[in-house]
Model the fold of this input.
Amino acid sequence: MTSAESKWDARRAETTRRLRRCALELTRDQGLDGWTMDDLADAAEVSRRTVFNYFDSKVAVVLGPDHEIGPELRETFVAGGPTGSLVADIVQVAAALMQDETADIDLVQLGRSVVLGDPQLLGIVHQRFEAKMLESTELVLAREGEQYGAERAALLIRLIATIFDSALLRLDPDDPRSLADSLDEAVADAVAVLTD
Done:
C-alpha cells in the first residue's frame, strides 16, 4: 500500500466515524425519524453526496455495516480453526468481525445506548441478530456435524453474543485494555458462573 493509499484509507475511516457519530447523536437527540440525511451532512460538515457515498440509508449509518464472515475465515472455522476450541474460535471470529467497530469505545457505547433507547432500531438489530444466529448455527453444524444439534448450536451462539455484549460493556475509553482482553475476562466470568 502506498503512502497516498494509506492516507486515503485513514481519511475514509475518519469520515465514516464522524458520520456514524453524528447520526447516533442525531438519533439520540431526535429519534431515527427526527432527522434527514441533509441534517446529517450539516452536522458532519460534509456534502449530501459524501453522505450517500458512504451510506445508503439512515439505518446503515446509525447501525454501521452488517459484518460478513469472509470465505477464508469461514473455511478456517469450519475446518476446526483457528485454535481448535469451538468456543474460543467463535469468540475469535466475532472479535475479528468487530475489530474495526470497537476501535472507538465511545462510539460503541453511544451506539449501544442509542439502539437500546429506540424501539425501531432495536427491532432492526434483532432482525439482524436472528439472521446472524441462523448463519452462525449453520457454521457450527458444518464444523461439528448435525449430531451436535441445532438447538445446542443456537444456544452456544446466544451465549457467546451475551458474553460479547458483556465484554463491550466492560470497555472503558480511559482503560487501555483491548477488546480481546475484555472478551477473555467475560468468557472466564461466564465459565465461572455456569460451573458454580
In short: The two ends are 51 Å apart (CA to CA). The chain has a mean pLDDT of 90. Residues 3-30 form the longest helix (28 residues). The chain is about 75% helix and 0% strand.
